[in-house]
Amino acid sequence: MKSLRALAGLLTGWSERNGEPRRQVAVLPVRAGPDGALQVMLITSRETRRWVVPKGWPMKGLKNYEAAAREAYEEAGLIGRVGRRALGSYFYHKRLKSRDTVLCQVQVFRLDVRKQLKTWPEQNEREGRWFSVPEAAEAVTEAGLAALIRAAGAEGAKARKAKAKVAVKIPPKAPSDQPSSNKPASGKLPSGKPPSKTPSKAP
Predict the structure, then answer these.
(1) More confident call, 182 vs 71
(2) Where is the composition biased (Pro residues) (predicted)?
(3) At the topology level of CATH, where does 21-159 sit?
(4) Quick one: average pLDDT of 90-106?
(5) Judging by DSSP bridges, how do beta strands 22-32 and 101-116 pair with one another?
(6) What is the dihedral of CA 17, 11, 59, 73, to 10 degrees?
(7) Short-list 110, 108, 153, CA closest to 132
(8) 3-class DSSP assignment, residue 73
(9) d(CA 50, CA 129)
(10) Does the pLDDT of residue 186 top 90, yes or no?
(11) Helix, strand or coil for residue 42?
């Protein structure tokens, strides 16, 4: 057993001595549904078939949010705009091929999905489905991930309300019939008398 754990440590970088979790990156794929409410795409894991978000190990030469976006393409065929700042992170236990498990901390970035490709690398290995925010939060098993999903849903609802307020147009004021200036348009003074002319001096 110790030899298997040592091998797992070499493969994953995890060690029992420091007990620090392995780092992973993920995206939370979202889009606006037909009613404008936020929807979340979840995919199934390859081994346990539970509902998860696209995730994987950090990639050399890529920033964490770029690596997370790459996982979204490889695992779900999703293309869109990924946020550079993480929404947060959650923990879970990942099962290794040796059947040992390692604790992982997953940094999650928001992905506003623009489209899903017709083909992608892991298309035949996973299933994907769009959920409402409450359904997605209930479908995942990790409490930390469920909390991130609910938080994203709350932010989405807040943004919708703000957008709705901006969309309300204030009707323009009706033009006034009265001239804005005290200067009469007819050349007469407000009293009705014509303006007096200063006699010109003879040369």
Answers:
(1) 71
(2) 192-203
(3) Nucleoside Triphosphate Pyrophosphohydrolase (3.90.79)
(4) 88
(5) parallel
(6) -120
(7) 153
(8) helix
(9) 12
(10) no
(11) strand
DSSP state of 98: T
Nearest-Å Rg of the Cα atoms of the chain is 32
Q: Which two tokens stand for residue 6?
A: 């040592």
Nearest of 30, 134, 160, 150 to residue 82 by alpha carbon:
30
The answer to whether the beta carbons of residues 111 and 29 sit under 8 Å apart is: yes
State how far Cα 59 lies from the chain centre.
Answer: 22
- Spatial separation of the C-alpha atoms in residues 138 and 182, rounded to whole Å: 70
Identify the H or E element spanning 28: strand 22-32
Q: Which residues of 36-55 are buried (b: 16+ CB within 10 A; e: fewer)?
A: eebbbbbbbeeeeeebbbbb
CA distances from 107 to 15, 57, 63, 149 (A): 20, 10, 12, 13
Q: Could you read off the pLDDT of 42-97 as tens digits, one per residue?
A: 999 988 899 999 999 999 999 999 999 999 999 999 999 999 999 999 999 988 77
Identify the pLDDT of residue 157: 79
- Residue 26 in tokens: 């993920």
Token duo for residue 116: 């899903």
Amino acid letter for position 174: A
CA distance 39 to 86: 19
The structure tokens 């359904």 sit at: 135
The CA distance from 192 to 187, in Å, is 10
Q: What is the pTM of this model?
A: 0.71
pLDDT at 15: 44
Domain ranges within the chain, ordered by starting residue: 21-159
